[in-house]
From TrEMBL:
Domain Flagellin N-terminal: 3-140
Superkingdom of the organism of origin: Bacteria
Location(s) in or outside the cell: Bacterial flagellum; Secreted
Protein's UniProt name: Flagellar hook-associated protein 3 FlgL
Assigned GO CC terms: bacterial-type flagellum hook; extracellular region
């Protein structure tokens, strides 16, 4: 078969162009560290990498949400801890007021401090996170759940229902807080009997203060040590229509029980917060492990073997240089050189 000089030239140039394309591709792989730059180069691997990247993005979003929820819960835990301190102080005041040496004036002074403790408890119930959202605001966390009415000296409740659930992992959600009602106004009157009703701590503390403010006859008479009401399901209504020391004694007896119920309830709330914080920590570890595995699989799927790529690049450069030299030599051939 006869091969023309022009055909030899075309084949040589075509071979060099193909080698140049392969060399450029290898150079891009070495520069980027990736096996392919476009999905068309390896559609299957590109689709797999895309799916894994989406999974990694979801895990990253879960981590961001976990950090936010963790921060809110820790701030709520601090608020609840401070609320426990408020109730403990009120309990100390109630015990101190239950003394035969107390006068109407001294009890009124104790009531004034309890009024201030009510305001402190309300401020804790209106605690905000770093973004200005109310921790106990429920779905309406842009509105303060409580306000204080100076005229009635009572805490007013605003709407704050709902508990927001936040996804922290595949198929796993956690509440990012508790409503003010659940923490401060729905204290079980009896831990084992739901029928006993619920205690509103704001109302209870205000009633204690009112009872202590009421002038009592026989103010210097000994007060009988308070005892737990015989009927545990008795409604814990701390209002008192009497003006006697005996009436005050009954209020103080119930008050200590109510405060103990409140302290137990806040302890349960802190436990619930701690459980959720542990869940976030566990899920964060799971997310980190999954992210590490996916990142490794994605790298195996799209990253090059850098040693192999450098070796291939060296061979392709040598091959292209050899082809170029051969082309130059062939181009110089002519029958006139042999005449």
């Amino acid at each position: 078969m006869r091969i023309s000089t022009q055909q030899i030239y075309r084949q040589s140039i075509g071979n060099m162009m193909e080698q140049q394309i392969q060399l450029t591709k290898t150079q891009q792989q070495v520069a980027t560290g990736k096996r392919f730059q476009n999905a068309s180069e390896d559609p299957v691997a590109a689709q797999q990498s895309l799916a894994m990247q989406r999974s990694l993005d979801r895990l990253a979003q879960y981590d961001k949400q976990s950090v936010l929820v963790d921060g809110r819960l820790r701030e709520e835990e601090n608020a609840v801890t401070s609320s426990v301190q408020v109730l403990q102080r009120v309990r100390e005041l109630v015990v101190g007021a239950n003394n035969g040496t107390q006068s109407n004036d001294s009890r009124a002074a104790t009531a004034a401090e309890i009024r201030e403790q009510v305001k402190s408890l309300m401020q804790l119930a209106n605690s905000q996170d770093g973004n200005g959202h109310y921790l106990f605001g429920g779905y309406q966390d842009d509105t303060a759940p409580y306000s204080f009415d100076d005229a009635s000296q009572a805490v007013q409740t605003n709407t704050h229902a709902g508990q927001r659930l936040v996804s922290i992992g595949p198929g796993r959600q956690v509440a990012d807080g508790d409503t003010g009602a659940a923490v401060f106004q729905q204290v079980p009157a009896n831990a084992t009997d739901v029928a006993a009703g619920q205690i509103d701590l704001f109302t209870a503390l205000s009633q204690i203060a009112t009872a202590l403010e009421t002038p009592r006859s026989g103010g210097l008479e000994p007060v009988v040590p308070p005892t737990v009401p015989a009927d545990p399901t008795e409604p814990y209504n701390l209002s008192d229509s009497t003006t006697t020391v005996d009436g005050l004694n009954k209020v103080l007896a119930k008050s200590l029980v109510v405060l103990d119920r409140g302290l137990d309830h806040l302890s349960d709330v802190r436990t619930s917060i701690g459980v959720r914080l542990n869940q976030i920590d566990q899920q964060s570890e799971t997310n980190a492990s999954s992210s590490l595995q996916l990142s490794a699989l994605k790298a195996d799927n799209e990253d090059i073997d850098i040693a192999e790529a450098y070796s291939r690049l060296s061979l392709q450069i040598s091959g292209l240089q050899a082809a170029q030299k051969a082309y130059v030599q062939v181009q110089g051939l002519s029958l006139f050189n042999y005449l």
